[in-house]
Specification:
The structure holds two protein chains of two kinds. Chain A is mostly helical. Chain A has two helices and no strands. Chain B contains nine helices and seven strands, in the order ααβββββββααααααα. The N and C termini of chain B lie far apart (about 50 Å). Classes of the chains: A mainly alpha, B mainly alpha.
């Protein structure tokens, strides 16, 4: 029977101490614990959210980077191509210019050579005619030294005149 | 990890065997010495009495009895005698009920067994006429209650401190042991049963959950800081149920009362000439906490009784022959270890059930619509 009859002393002590423990724990344990738990949960949730956001932003940034990089690559390719064209053009121009110059030079030289040749030839001709005259004079002088020869010569000359 | 767990289990078994072995030895000495002295008529072992004495409250904390000498912790007696007024002394003055002290005596037999009674002038005969003194002693159960309360305050105030200290950090130490339980009570008991107003009742639910759980666990420890049958005492569970009842009644809204007086969806003839339904509903208001009280009390007491019953088997068989006693002790220990494992589960389940039902009652009382 004692088992199911609550003792008055126990009821008293239980009522008193349980009420006290409830009040004390409520104020000094459960309130801060639950508060902190809630705060931590919110904090974790916010952190997760911001992490997600950061991830999205990162992805966005990455695609941006990729795009910029691609553009840069394209521009580089273009620049290289242009540079190559310019180089080729310059080389071509230089080559043609050089050939023209060379042609001109050759023409000039040819002309000079021609004129020099002409001058030399005239000079030689003059020289030859002068020399021939001199030779002829010398021959004549030598021929005409003898009277007989002179006579013959005169006669030939007169003969020529007579004929005319 | 596995090896460690195994080691712990082995260690636990060895300790259990050693302890139970000691107990058996001590008890045998007791019966021997008693039969020799023959002063008391207790030669036959009475398992019923043995079990009940361990389950009910006591004015001293019995630890062991070696060679007829009882090892007990004396507890303070606070008593209001209608003859002498308020008295305060230690229970060791009674010498285990053998002597009286200042006109009071611990009754050892009869209806008032275990209670403090008034004695006549000769200091021995019980005064049948006198009213029983008002006993507010710090008994075994009350001291266990204080131990549980001390443990709770210590654990949870330090947990609260570490929450404050380690704000927004992962739990550490005892905090990480308690946090899953606190979250369990909050998210699996309070929130689904009560609804959005659960935060108001959470401190109470957490307090009863941990109070019952810690008390149950301490009750499983067979030696001093534990061993007292706190949650298996009807006064203790009664007060817990009373708290639940009071909180339910105070916080109940109009819908709840309307539901009791005029239950909807019930044929009118159950209400009009004879108010059958209102009576049933009103009885229900009181049976709910009553069931809470009885369930916890009966579950925990039953566990203690079964464990003690297995021990009693040792002495019952031991009386028949010494060999049978030793033989059955092995079985008894195995069964008691098994029961202890079961009781560990029951310790949690009962704490859970009491808290869950309290939460459900709060939820019913504060429900907005039917």
């Amino acid at each position: 029977m004692e088992l199911v009859t609550p003792g008055i002393g126990l009821i008293f002590w239980m009522l008193l101490s349980f009420s006290l423990v409830l009040i004390i724990l409520k104020k000094y344990a459960w309130k801060p614990v639950l508060q902190m738990l809630k705060e931590r949960e919110e904090n974790i949730e916010n952190s997760l959210k911001s992490a997600e956001k950061a991830k999205d932003e990162m992805a966005k940034l990455q695609t941006d980077n990729e795009r910029i990089l691609n553009e840069a690559r394209k521009e580089r390719d273009l620049l290289i191509k242009e540079a190559r064209e310019i180089k080729e053009k310059i080389i071509f121009e230089a080559k043609s210019q050089a050939s023209i110059e060379a042609g001109k030079l050759i023409e000039n030289s040819k002309a000079i050579i021609q004129s020099e040749k002409m001058a030399a030839l005239t000079d030689i001709k003059n020289q030859i005619s002068f020399l021939s005259v001199e030779i002829a004079e010398k021959i004549l002088k030598k021929e005409l030294l003898k009277d007989a020869n002179q006579k013959v010569f005169i006669e030939s000359l007169i003969k020529d005149i007579n004929l005319n | 990890m596995q090896l460690q767990t195994k080691l712990y289990i082995n260690l636990f078994l060895i300790i259990a065997l050693l302890f139970f072995g000691l107990n058996i030895k001590a008890s045998e000495h007791k019966t021997d010495s008693l039969s020799e002295s023959g002063s008391k008529n207790e030669e036959t072992f009475k398992p019923g009495e043995f079990i009940i004495n361990h389950v009910i409250d006591n004015h001293e904390w019995h630890i062991a009895e070696i060679s007829g000498t009882e090892i007990t912790i004396p507890l303070p007696i606070i008593v209001y005698s209608y003859k002498q007024g308020l008295l305060f002394f230690m229970s060791s003055k009674f010498e285990h009920g053998e002597k009286s002290y200042s006109g009071l005596k611990l009754e050892t037999e009869g209806v008032n067994k275990g209670k403090i009674v008034e004695v006549l002038e000769d200091g021995n005969t019980v005064d049948e006429e006198a009213k029983l003194p008002l006993d507010l002693s710090i008994t075994k159960i009350v001291s266990e209650l204080f131990i549980v309360i001390f443990l709770m305050l210590w654990i949870f105030i330090s947990v609260a401190k570490s929450y404050k200290r380690r704000q927004n950090l992962a739990p550490k130490g005892i905090q990480s042991l308690m946090e899953p339980l606190i979250i369990f009570v909050r998210d699996d008991i309070a929130r689904p049963s009560i609804g959005h107003t659960y935060q108001k009742y959470l401190p109470y639910l957490l307090t009863i959950f941990f109070f019952i759980f810690i008390s149950n666990l301490l009750g499983l420890i067979p030696i001093f800081p534990g061993g007292a049958n706190l949650t298996g005492n009807i006064a203790v569970t009664g007060i817990l149920a009373l708290f639940t009842f009071t909180i339910t009644t105070i916080n109940a809204n109009a819908t709840y009362w309307k539901h009791i007086i005029n239950a909807p969806c019930v044929p009118w003839w159950l209400k009009i000439p004879i108010p059958l339904m209102p009576i049933v509903e009103l009885i229900g208001v009181f049976t709910k906490p009553f069931v809470l009280m009885v369930r916890l009390f009966a579950n925990i007491t039953a566990g203690h009784i079964i464990a003690l019953g297995f021990f009693s088997l040792i002495f019952i068989f031991g009386k028949m022959s010494l060999g049978a006693g030793y033989g059955i002790s092995v079985l008894s220990v195995i069964f008691t270890v098994f029961m202890s494992m079961l009781e560990l589960l029951v310790a949690f389940i009962q704490a859970y059930v009491f808290t869950l039902l309290s939460a459900i009652y709060f939820g019913l009382a504060t429900e907005e619509h039917h």
